[in-house]
Amino acid sequence: MNNKAQTLGLAIVSSIMVFIIGLMILNFVMDEITVARAELGCASPATITDGTKLLCLAIDGTVPYWILLILSIAIGTITSRFVL
Prior knowledge:
Elements: H1 4-40, H2 50-60, H3 62-83
Helix pairs in contact: 1-2, 1-3
């Protein structure tokens, strides 16, 4: 008997748990991003240097990259049950 149908429910539940935990961690990261932007002075473009601009862009890109990472782990957990 093929057990892929039985493990699909477990894969969906575990991927939802990964997604929820990832979004909970994102709330803690958002506070640190706000502090880092304030300390670097990312809001005032007149006093910012080129290196600081690059650092501000990297800090601003943290949230979208984190969301994409969480989604890829959740989708990978579900699709791994089909392959294996």
